[in-house]
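$ ./design --mode recover --in tokens.txt
reading tokens...
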């Protein structure tokens, strides 16, 4: 059985958790700076096709290593896994900065850096996803998720704003150095201050492949977890192509200009922050039910991006952001409090694998459909598909009756 080392204080007075969210937001800002620097440098030193390969280079090794990361998260102490993975990230960034300073940016160094960072991400994310469960009471998970998501979005927005300026004036080496400094802060916080309060059960030591296999066996034998993992695996397959491709295509077709794209994307981020912040106070009795209903609303809002005037697209983007903020906090809390502790890391890795594997297909399909019809048709098709997909978990009585306090 899981034992409690130190009881968590009420979330509003939990200084350790608040500090962790702030440190994580700082790291997210650094990662946004790195992402922009990598993409911008790739465009400068390579053809558009090769630049696209650089940006996507971390996805394939990340997908390949993600299941191993889940095994590591279930077997070893999450805090030390996070420290080790962040130390490796720091090493990748420092090595990249030194290499670029010495030889200048090249396609080879960009590819190696992207692949190495993708691998460290795959080790970090399953372990990092378990830390909230080990620090916060189940009933406070929506508030934790809402505040953490708000911190991440604000950090990413700030990093994106700084990233373009920084890479223009300091290059890839300067951007990598700044991101490396954020990891120094994260590592120091993990070592000095962060301490788990509700340790998870650990998986039995066994060969990696067998452990991965047993993770899928657990998924097959636990219907509620299976439904939750499968439903969460497909959440972004409609909205990400709609926002990433649909908005620019619609703006180009209507002659709205690049400024409109920035405004619409900003409205999504603003809405997500508003939605996430509502979870600091709102604790619905049946969080999964509310979360998936909000995603039905999100699906219904996606077609509106492709219909009507600019203000209607803006309202749709804000609504999509709000629904994403609320649903992410609620469904993340349900996932954290429902999944068995000894299998948690592997379930996270399986769920994340869905996006990594199917997202490129979804992006290509959206672009192809928009090419032979229009952006409006593609937005309508993907929005309707998302709304219908959410009816499947909403029809699961056990999932819909889940409460965070058990």
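writing sequence...
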């Amino acid at each position: 059985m899981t034992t409690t080392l130190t009881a968590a204080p009420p979330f509003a007075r939990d200084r350790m958790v608040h500090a962790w969210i702030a440190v994580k937001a700082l790291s997210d800002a650094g990662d946004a700076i790195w992402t922009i620097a990598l993409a911008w440098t790739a465009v400068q030193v390579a053809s558009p096709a090769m630049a696209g390969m650089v940006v996507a280079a971390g996805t394939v090794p990340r997908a390949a290593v993600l299941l191993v990361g889940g095994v590591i998260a279930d077997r070893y102490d999450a805090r030390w896994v996070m420290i080790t993975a962040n130390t490796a990230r720091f090493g990748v960034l420092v090595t990249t900065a030194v290499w670029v300073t010495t030889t200048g940016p090249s396609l080879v160094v960009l590819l190696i850096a992207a692949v190495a960072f993708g691998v460290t991400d795959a080790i970090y994310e399953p372990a990092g996803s378990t830390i909230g469960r080990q620090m916060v009471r189940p009933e406070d998970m929506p508030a934790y998720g809402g505040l953490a998501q708000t911190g991440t979005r604000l950090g990413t927005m700030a990093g994106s704003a700084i990233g373009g300026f920084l890479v223009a004036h300091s290059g890839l080496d300067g951007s990598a150095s700044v991101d490396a400094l954020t990891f120094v802060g994260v590592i120091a916080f993990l070592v000095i201050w962060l301490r788990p309060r509700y340790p998870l059960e650990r998986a039995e030591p066994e060969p990696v492949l067998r452990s991965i296999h047993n993770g899928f066996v657990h998924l097959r034998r636990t219907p509620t977890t299976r439904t939750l993992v499968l439903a969460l695996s497909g959440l972004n397959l409609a909205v990400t192509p709609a926002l990433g491709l649909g908005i620019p295509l619609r703006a180009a077709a209507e002659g709205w200009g690049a400024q409109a794209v920035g405004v619409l994307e900003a409205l999504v981020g603003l809405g997500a922050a508003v939605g996430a912040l509502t979870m600091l106070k709102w604790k619905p009795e049946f969080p999964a039910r509310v979360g998936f209903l909000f995603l039905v609303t999100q699906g219904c809002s996606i077609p509106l991006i492709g219909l009507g005037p600019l203000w209607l697209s803006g309202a749709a983007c804000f609504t999509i952001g709000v629904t994403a903020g609320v649903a992410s906090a609620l469904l993340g809390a349900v996932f954290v409090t429902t999944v068995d502790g000894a299998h948690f890391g592997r379930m996270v890795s399986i769920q994340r694998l869905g996006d990594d594997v199917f997202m490129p297909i979804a992006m290509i399909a959206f672009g192809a459909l928009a090419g032979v019809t229009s952006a409006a048709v593609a937005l309508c098709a993907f929005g309707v598909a998302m709304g219908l997909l959410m009816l499947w978990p909403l029809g699961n009585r056990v999932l819909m009756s889940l409460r965070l306090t058990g």
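exit 0
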